[in-house]
Amino acid sequence: MILRLRGNDNKKIKYANNISERDGVLAVMNITRMKHAFSFDLMSAVVALIVTLAAGLALAVLFTLSSTNISERSREMATLKVLGFYKREVHSYIHKEMLTLTIIGIVVGLPLGRLIAGLLTNALRMPSLYFEVEVSPLSYCIAGVATLIFALIVQWANNPALDRIDPVSSLKSVE
Hints:
The protein is mostly helical. Helices cover 76% and strands 0% of the residues. It is built from six helices and no strands. The chain is elongated, with a radius of gyration of 27 Å. The model has no long low-confidence stretch (mean pLDDT 84).
């Protein structure tokens, strides 16, 4: 049996739920409920894709910045090695600096990100549709922790580059 119902979406969904609970009813297909489920599933997939791509971009940017920092400061690292610093101390020196810069980036970046999101939604606002930027505090915590984890992964990945710095050749090179 096919029924076409009048009324708002909530009433249609409620009526379909009532019918499905009756004895003898095998299945109820509700187009309105399917539309809601599809749109939310599709939106969730798009958000997951964007988050994944953003995480990859963050890793790439952090890795590039860290590698550039190490390569530009090879003479300084070589000097530390010549002065008798152990590998662990050289790693710690760079890691503390990178961690400090990461924390500064998080503290500055999260409020600026919220500001830019608000400006973008305001600029792209349509008369019939408007999305308010609402970010929960938990989302800020997750973003900050994820950034710290990415920074630690990048630091761990760049440790071999620090170990490969040859003090003799680095100090011989002319800048």
